[in-house]
Predict the 3D structure of the following.
Amino acid sequence: MSALKEIGQRLKEWRNKQGLTQQELAQKLGVARQTIASWEIGMTDIPNWALKKLKEEFDLDLNWLIAGENQ
């Protein structure tokens, strides 16, 4: 499995644990729902600005998201 797909799966797992829909997360990040979907299936990379916002606003562990290291 590609790294992008693994990151996308972890993003989806995290989003579901937070009880957020793709649409809700998209609104919080200021992107389209389709953007979240493309990140989650590993079609596109999550840009640095979005990673920073996920870390700052949601306290998402980026080491876990990117490398799969334990939370």
Summary: The mean pLDDT is 95. Residues 44 and 63 are 19 Å apart (CA to CA). The radius of gyration is 11 Å.
